[in-house]
Amino acid sequence: QLQLQESGPGLVKPSETLSLTCTVSGGSISSSSYYWGWIRQPPGKGLEWIGSISYSGSTYYNPSLKSRVTISVDTSKNQFSLRLSSVTAADTAVYYCAQIVVIDWYFDLWGRGTLVTVSS
Amino acid sequence: SFELTQPPSVSVSPGQTASITCSGDNLGNKYASWYQQKPGQSPVLVIYQDIKRPSGIPERFSASNSGNSATLTISGTQTLDEADYYCQAWDNSIGGVFGTGTKVTVL
Questions:
Q1: How far apart are CA B88 and CA B65, in angstroms?
Q2: How many CB atoms lie within 10 A of CB B29?
Q3: Which site among B33, B34, B42 would you substitute to test the A interface, given the most A Cβ atoms closer than 10 Å to its Cβ?
Q4: Which of A101, B4, B8, B93 is positioned for an S-S bond with B24, CB 3.0–4.6 A?
Q5: Sign of the C-alpha dihedral, residues A6, A113, A71, B29?
Q6: Minimum Cα–Cα distance from B100: chain A residue
């Protein structure tokens, strides 16, 4: 059974770069049927798609975050990663990684999420 | 830009039917998905490709999508259906778009 697990620092200072990794277990990240994505949810608020990547490295980013986001993939480790630069308090959120079914672009499997707080 | 709007809240009595709408320009021309999120948990896919239910999702969850709106219907609502619900679609210009979310209260 495929599982996704986010990992990374829970506290990041303002103006620094947030870095998270999603480890995929129970299956291979190298499938053309799926993309792999990051979604975030500020406390008490709704879901926001950040970006997505294929196993070959093709990416899509949310235009509102594109200038600060980089998503990469490491197929040898079955992982994909998120980097968000120049963070502010507004980037405080629970960050989820998810598997995306390419045919119709829906998120069929989610990680448990990890809370990242931006504070000095 | 493409946006999806949902009512902030819906209240329903146990055993009754809850309907949640999701509005967006020409949403009917895209596939809509729906997610259930309970407090402190990750979202769970309950509907994909407008009307399909993933394995394990009860039959009381159904949906439709046409014109400028999609609708999620929960028939015979149970207390365990109390949660936040989000619609989602993919826009070729923007990418993944989530609705504003609807809190379903069963009382």
A1: 12
A2: 12
A3: B42
A4: B4
A5: positive
A6: A46
Residue B84 token pair: 């936040």
* Amino acid in position B85: Y
**Whole-number Å distance between alpha carbons of A97 and A80:** 9
d(CA B1, CA A18): 27
**What separation, in Å, do the N-terminal and C-terminal C-alpha atoms of chain A show?**
39
Task: Tell if the CB–CB gap between A96 and B88 is shorter than 8 Å.
Answer: no
The closest of A69, A62, A64, A67 to A84, measured between CA atoms, is A69
Question: What amino acid is encoded at B47 in this protein?
Answer: I
Q: What's the half-sphere exposure (Cβ side, CA atoms, 13 Å) at B42?
A: 22
Whether the CB of A59 is below 8 Å from some CB of chain B: the reply is no
Beta bridge partners of B96: B90
pLDDT tens by residue, B36-82: 999 999 999 999 999 999 999 999 999 999 999 999 999 999 999 99
Cross-strand bridge partners of residue B13: none
Q: pLDDT tens-digit profile of A75-93?
A: 999 999 999 999 999 999 9
